[in-house]
């Protein structure tokens, strides 16, 4: 990435590549770094004899001395009097020839640099940058190290955790090297260790011979590193605010597997501690930073981290980094935290040094950190946001942001690679971590080419040429043994095929090893799953290839009552058994079983607020699903998901609310009414024929109602507009006498229809947003006596009619939208009860017996997901309300289908779940069932394909679903939105006809639930007429095990439970059993499985 910045340009240029001006925030005062030519020095030691004459430095080099006099150079400081390899040079730059020039003032320092850079005795001249640390403090504590998941540290650690032979130098403010989570990885200099002692608790070093051991670095008794700030052999940093180096050290090499704290990217490593800050005051920068790099390389560091830097021209930094590189060390640097582009106009060092690995920062989603520098010199990225690491205070931990954190994260990965590949040179190591990085420019389209090779990946960097990298590419599940509908359901035996992939990087083409002898074993501990066939052989898999186990599919058996959630499996794959690194990997993945009917869902492209009608429109006995959609189509869909001839009807305007069904001309053929966003009302027939379309005269916010107002067998079409106009239409679309009626308030909810006073004339009930409840006599267009009623607040919800007391008159139930009231009014407008449940209510009331005690309950669900179940007097039923913890806008329906005395209250929530809540607070088996999206439109319940099972037909905000529950409905007390398909909201009076919501009774035997089962199961059956019935259990030998039913039973739905015992009450063994039902000429046998 540094191809655009050539050091040779810096060396031969007459002036700097870009105009760096002195700034006391970035450069040391009065200081200029220069490198004298070999000829000017005249020796190998770099020593220049100079003196002070007339207050100016004199060296005997005439041109230089003239500049010293002109610009006030008062001192020369040789920066590196000791160089381990004095013959080393970088295009003529010898480190021992590098000097710091001290000027008497900063007044003309920029001019001095410019003039000195042109002197024939000097190779370069540049300002001395202050080595600022590269982190941005962040107060909130991060509770986990996301960095390791992001860069796949855990996968790498399966094979290599590092090596104490690899030395990582932390050139920084100093390290609290006795931190409990660092001390195990602190480097101890073997050349200095004889006769020396470390007190780890006290943080002190004693002993030593007072001489350098000659290992390099030219420091005396440097047992664990060097304090460059105080020039002593204890680099301990204890000043709390100077914990930058301690945090950096932990990022790279906090000790792993020690049962405390956290872990660095290289859990095993040797950390060389270098200190460049005070123990008594806050640091303004890192002192002697480049000396620290030079020293670290000379004592044998393999990786040198430099989380600091400053702007500049780069000749001196490049010479130091190049020297370190020549000694075998890779210098890893922080890009900077100014969100600045590094280019020909701005450079930062040592980040932009040619041979340094420059690291920018990314966050958890691989997006460039908003503080991170960028540009062509960047080599790679690493996580640098919220990085949890070691700090000084309390030997604790904290999370910091900055490229200062990204750099040691990368340095630790380099140490892992070096441990596994010790032969790599610095250039090869740098190339390897770059070429194995993950492509991140799709997430950073504005920074293409400016974030280096990508985000570092520890696993790929260490192992790509050692092992394959197998992933689960795809899965398919098929019904192997079940009900034969082709959909893998709970309760069936499932065939699972898994496609495995050997990874080939699609962006870089980087290939992992070929997998040979690839085998896979399927496991799970999920309750209700029994694996039958668990192994498959895949053979050999080359990089970039995928392979299915079509010839050896996995098989597993499921119980019928599985929750509706992904089933977790693990696939243990093995390959390359004789290779140096035999491959074993456990791959977690999930499998989804489905209760969605084959052929469904039907995609709508938007949210339908049209609750379905289930009705037979053709000669086929199955029921069709009739509903509207937001694109302006009215659908009639068969049980298999195909459309009925003549449908969909394309109206061109979104269908508003639910479609209503009735008979407008008393000819025995059902008609259907729908409202549209263009404010028209349409009547259509069962073949898709449009009978008429009439303007409503105002904005429609809900669907129409069809009711026989005159008791003549002819339904009228009723609608209310948002502006409060109550519209009633005849069979030909003309206005009904005395209508429309103005209600004097905005209306959003669906009207209800009832004969409140028993006079044979139906009233139309409408609630307004301003809190008025009307009961309009359909003959006069006027409110009847006792109405209108003033409610506590307004309602936009549907109204429900039911008989809540012992008289023969119906009551009216209204839920208020904002005040959280459930209101029940008597037929004369007086209050039956009034109950406040708090919060918003966006659903209507449902009246049904939910506990099979013969008494009806009132069910209302609040917007916050609280299911209120009230007695007809308005009291909470014991154990209620029940909170599902999700927002709800869906008016429920009710069915008994669990084989017991508790009904399921069925509704959707805004998080995409369909619930079936029971009165004991539990949910029916398989529920909640997720269909995603927002489920706010009521379900319709029935058996659309006549297979004996309950079907729940419900839309989310994109599609219509049929949920094929694999057990029959014992009964369906409330089968659709508003209780009837004419949408009159009246469950008490006929307005005018019943819907036949479930098929006519037939004598038949249903499947048992659950199946397989343990310890008991329920067998359901129905009788078309009363008569004698036997229900018996047989084993596989045909022997009678138990008789469950032997009695005369009435027509209707029935059930019997079997607890897995024989006629003597003894438990039978697990296995396959058969149950046979006989009644008159009818006989049917089905199979079930007892599992123990």
In short, what is this structure?
By secondary structure, the protein is mainly β.
How would you characterize the overall build of this protein?
- The radius of gyration is 41 Å and the shape is elongated.
- The two termini are about 65 Å apart.
- The chain contains 12 helices and 71 strands.
- The strands form 19 sheets. It has a 7-stranded parallel beta sheet with strand order 11-12-8-13-15-18-20, sandwiched between helices. Strands 23, 24, 26, 28 and 29 form a 5-stranded antiparallel beta sheet that branches.
- With about 1100 residues, it is mainly beta.
- Helix 7 (about 245-255) runs parallel beside helix 10.
Reported for the largest beta sheet, the result is: 7 strands, parallel
Strand content: 25-35%
Low-confidence stretches: 1-18, 133-143, 992-999
Strand order of the largest sheet: 11-12-8-13-15-18-20
* Amino- and carboxy-terminal Cα gap: 64 Å
Summed up, the helix count is 12
- Computed CA radius of gyration, to the nearest angstrom: 41 Å
Helix content: under 10%
Large-scale geometry: elongated
Number of separate strands: 71
Identify the notable features of this structure and list them briefly:
1092 residues, elongated, five-stranded antiparallel sheet, mainly beta
Question: What layout of secondary structure does this protein have?
Answer:
Blueprint: H1 7-12, E1 27-36, H2 38-41, E2 51-53, E3 56-58, H3 62-71, E4 73-78, E5 98-103, H4 109-116, E6 122-129, E7 132-133, H5 146-150, H6 153-157, E8 162-172, E9 196-199, E10 204-207, E11 225-227, H7 244-253, E12 268-275, H8 289-298, E13 303-306, E14 308-311, H9 315-326, E15 330-334, E16 341-342, E17 348-349, E18 357-362, E19 374-375, E20 380-383, E21 387-390, E22 397-400, H10 403-420, H11 426-435, H12 458-463, E23 470-481, E24 493-502, E25 515-523, E26 529-533, E27 535-541, E28 546-548, E29 554-558, E30 567-575, E31 583-591, E32 602-603, E33 613-615, E34 624-628, E35 633-637, E36 649-650, E37 655-662, E38 671-676, E39 680-684, E40 690-695, E41 705-707, E42 716-720, E43 725-729, E44 741-742, E45 752-754, E46 763-767, E47 772-777, E48 789-790, E49 800-802, E50 811-815, E51 821-825, E52 831-836, E53 846-848, E54 857-861, E55 866-870, E56 882-883, E57 893-896, E58 904-908, E59 913-917, E60 929-930, E61 940-942, E62 951-955, E63 959-964, E64 971-974, E65 1004-1009, E66 1017-1023, E67 1027-1034, E68 1040-1049, ...
Helix pairs in contact: 7-10, 8-9
């Amino acid at each position: 990435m540094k191809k655009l910045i050539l050091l040779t340009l810096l060396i031969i240029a007459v002036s700097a590549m870009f105009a760096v001006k002195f700034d006391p925030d970035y450069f040391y005062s009065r200081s200029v770094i220069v490198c004298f030519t070999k000829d000017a020095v005249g020796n190998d030691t770099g020593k220049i004899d100079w003196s002070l004459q007339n207050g100016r430095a004199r060296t005997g080099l005439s041109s230089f001395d003239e500049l010293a006099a002109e610009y006030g150079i008062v001192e020369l400081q040789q920066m590196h009097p000791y160089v381990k390899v004095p013959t080393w040079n970088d295009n003529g730059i010898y480190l021992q020839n590098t000097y710091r020039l001290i000027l008497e003032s900063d007044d003309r320092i920029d001019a001095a640099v410019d003039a000195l850079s042109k002197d024939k005795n000097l190779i370069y001249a540049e300002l001395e940058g202050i080595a600022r640390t590269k982190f941005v403090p962040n107060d909130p504590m991060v509770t986990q190290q996301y960095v390791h998941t992001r860069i796949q540290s855990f996968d790498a650690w399966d094979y290599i955790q590092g090596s104490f032979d690899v030395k990582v130098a932390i050139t920084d403010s100093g390290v609290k090297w006795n931190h409990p989570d660092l001390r195990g990885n602190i480097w101890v200099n073997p050349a200095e260790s004889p006769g020396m002692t470390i007190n780890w608790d006290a943080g002190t070093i004693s002993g030593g011979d007072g001489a350098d051991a000659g290992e390099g670095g030219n420091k005396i008794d440097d047992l664990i590193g060097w304090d460059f700030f105080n020039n002593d052999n204890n680099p301990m940093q204890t000043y709390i605010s100077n914990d930058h180096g301690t945090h950096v050290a932990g990022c790279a090499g906090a000790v792993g597997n020690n049962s405390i704290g956290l872990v660095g990217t290289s859990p095993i490593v040797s950390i060389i501690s270098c200190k460049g800050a005070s123990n008594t005051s806050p640091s303004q920068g890192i002192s002697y930073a480049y000396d620290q790099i030079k020293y670290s390389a000379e004592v044998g560091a393999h990786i040198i981290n430099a989380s600091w830097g400053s702007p500049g021209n780069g000749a001196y930094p490049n010479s130091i980094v190049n020297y370190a590189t020549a000694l075998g060390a890779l210098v890893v640097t922080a890009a900077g935290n100014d969100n600045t582009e590094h280019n020909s106009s701005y450079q930062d060092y040592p980040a932009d040094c040619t041979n340094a690995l420059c690291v920018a920062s990314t966050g958890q989603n691989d997006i460039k950190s908003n503080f991170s520098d960028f540009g062509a010199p960047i080599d790679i990225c690493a996580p640098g946001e919220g990085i949890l690491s070691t700090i000084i205070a309390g030997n604790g931990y904290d999370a910091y942001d900055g490229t200062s954190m990204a750099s040691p994260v990368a340095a630790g990965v380099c140490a892992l690679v070096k441990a596994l590949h010790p032969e790599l040179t610095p250039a090869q190591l740098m190339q390897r971590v770059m070429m194995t990085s993950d492509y991140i420019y799709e997430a950073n389209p504005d920074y293409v080419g400016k974030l280096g090779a990508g985000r570092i990946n520890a696993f790929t960097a260490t192992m790509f040429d050692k092992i394959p990298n197998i992933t689960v590419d795809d899965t398919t599940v098929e019904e192997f043994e079940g009900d034969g509908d082709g959909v893998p359901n709970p309760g069936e035996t499932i065939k699972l095929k898994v496609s495995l992939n050997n990874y080939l990087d699609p962006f870089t083409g980087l290939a992992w090893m070929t997998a040979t002898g690839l085998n896979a074993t399927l496991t799970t501990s999920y309750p209700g799953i029994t694996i039958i066939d668990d192994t498959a052989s895949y053979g050999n898999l080359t990089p970039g290839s995928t392979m299915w186990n079509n010839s050896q599919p996995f098989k597993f058996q499921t119980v019928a009552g599985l929750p509706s959630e992904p089933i977790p499996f693990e696939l243990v794959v093995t390959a390359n058994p004789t290779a140096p690194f035999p491959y074993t990997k456990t791959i977690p993945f999930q499998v989804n079983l489905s209760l969605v009917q084959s052929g469904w869902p039907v995609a709508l492209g938007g949210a339908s607020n049209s609750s379905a009608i289930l009705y037979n429109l053709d000669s086929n006995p199955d029921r069709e699903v009739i509903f509207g959609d937001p694109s302006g189509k009215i659908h009639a869909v068969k049980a298999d998901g195909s459309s009925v001839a003549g449908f969909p009807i394309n109206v061109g305007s979104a269908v508003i609310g639910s479609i209503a069904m009735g008979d407008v001309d008393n000819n025995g053929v059902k008609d259907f009414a729908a409202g549209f966003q263009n404010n028209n009302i349409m009547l259509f027939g069962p073949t898709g024929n449009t009978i008429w379309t009439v303007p409503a005269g105002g904005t429609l916010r809900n669907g129409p109602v069809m009711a026989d107002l005159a008791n003549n067998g002819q339904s009228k079409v009723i609608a209310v507009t948002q502006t409060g106009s109550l519209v009633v239409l005849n069979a030909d679309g003309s206005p009904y006498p005395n209508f429309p009626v103005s209600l004097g308030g905005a209306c959003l909810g669906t009207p209800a229809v009832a004969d409140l006073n028993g006079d044979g004339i139906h009233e139309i009930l409408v609630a307004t947003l301003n809190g008025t409840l009307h009961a309009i006599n359909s003959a006069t267009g006027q409110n009847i006596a006792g109405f209108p009623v003033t409610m506590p607040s307004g309602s936009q919800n549907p109204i429900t009619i039911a008989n809540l007391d012992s008289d023969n008159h119906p009551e009216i139930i209204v839920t208020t939208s904002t005040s959280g009231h459930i209101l029940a009014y008597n037929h004369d407008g007086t209050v039956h009860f009034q109950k406040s449940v708090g919060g918003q209510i966006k659903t209507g009331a449902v009246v049904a017996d939910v506990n099979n005690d013969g008494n009806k309950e009132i069910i209302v669900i609040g917007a916050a997901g609280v299911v209120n179940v009230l007695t007809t007097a308005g009291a909470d039923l014991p154990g209620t309300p029940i909170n599902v913890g999700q927002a709800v806008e869906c008016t429920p329906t009710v069915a008994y289908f669990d084989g017991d005395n508790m009904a399921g209250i069925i509704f959707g929530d805004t998080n995409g779940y369909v619930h079936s809540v029971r009165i004991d607070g539990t949910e029916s088996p398989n529920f909640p069932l997720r269909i995603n999206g927002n489920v706010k439109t009521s379900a319709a319940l029935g058996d659309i394909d006549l297979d004996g099972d309950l079907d729940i037909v419900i839309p989310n905000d994109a599609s219509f679903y049929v949920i094929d529950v694999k057990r029959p409905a014992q009964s369906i007390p409330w089968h659709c939105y508003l209780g009837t398909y004419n949408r009159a909201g009246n469950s008490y009076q006929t307005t005018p006809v019943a819907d036949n919501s479930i098929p006519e009774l037939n004598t038949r035997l249903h499947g048992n639930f659950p199946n397989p089962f343990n310890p008991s199961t329920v067998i359901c059956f129905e009788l078309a007429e009363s008569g004698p019935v036997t229900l018996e259990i047989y084993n596989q030998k045909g022997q009678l095990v138990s008789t469950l039913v032997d009695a005369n039973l009435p027509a209707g739905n029935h059930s019997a439970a079997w607890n897995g015992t024989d006629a003597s009450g003894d438990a039978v063994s697990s296995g396959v059993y058969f149950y046979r039902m006989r009644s008159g000429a009818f006989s049917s046998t089905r199979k079930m499985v007892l599992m123990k």
